[in-house]
Amino acid sequence: MADFNAVAKAFVDFYYETFDRNRQELTPLYRENSMLTFEGQQTVGAAAITEKLVNLPFQKVGHRISTTDAQPADFERGSILVSVTGLLLIDEEQNPQMFSQTFHLIPEGGSYWVFNDIFRLNYA
Amino acid sequence: MADFNAVAKAFVDFYYETFDRNRQELTPLYRENSMLTFEGQQTVGAAAITEKLVNLPFQKVGHRISTTDAQPADFERGSILVSVTGLLLIDEEQNPQMFSQTFHLIPEGGSYWVFNDIFRLNYA
């Protein structure tokens, strides 16, 4: 089995760097049966998920990762659960918002794609 | 397939009600290969996980759930991913702390057990 912590770290670095630079480029990480629940709104499929992410109502965005935790989610096929907490800076806002996000990564051809993706802002 | 949102809601209600009343009683929710990552510390197995939870350094604890999101994590065996955000009140503290927690639930005999459990406090 691949080192799930190393996979999680590499995925998280790549995902948020890409998100902050050009979220259109996240499409290849999703498949037709991928699911995104973003602030309670459910979207299914790579095309719909990318459209959802690209149309989020901000131009500039920066993610600062606070914690990344990973666990094997399935010993047979080697899928990995990744849970992230961090801070989000949007456009010209000075105050970051806290967020948490969970990914379920499925191995395929030496790489991983996102089957499950759940995002929430954290309010006090 | 069971209604994964209904399963998630019932699980979350039961889990935190039990946690806040008597966390020793959470043992039956875990199995020998269950994993808990609590604030970055990894524990495996029902006995070790319960010991970890029971020995957390507080007497009274109350969870207030803000959001519960769920997705099917595996169409073949019907496992469910549940992501929770909420507030934690410990002992006589007046200021709640934000937390996020992710569970991966496996169906078995008409019920579900926890294979993956990742908990984090969220700091600004």
From TrEMBL, chains A, B:
InterPro entries: NTF2 (IPR045875), NTF2-like_dom_sf (IPR032710), NTF2_dom (IPR002075), Nuclear_transport_factor_2_euk (IPR018222)
UniProt-listed GO biological process terms: mRNA transport; protein import into nucleus
Compartments where located: Cytoplasm; Nucleus
Keywords: Cytoplasm, Nucleus, Protein transport, Transport
Domain NTF2 intervals: 7-121
Cellular component aspect of the GO annotation: cytoplasm; nuclear envelope
Record flagged with keyword RNA-binding: no
PANTHER family from the UniProt entry: NUCLEAR TRANSPORT FACTOR 2 (PTHR12612)
Described purpose of this protein according to its UniProt entry: Has a role in nuclear-cytoplasmic transport of proteins and mRNAs.
Protein name: Nuclear transport factor 2
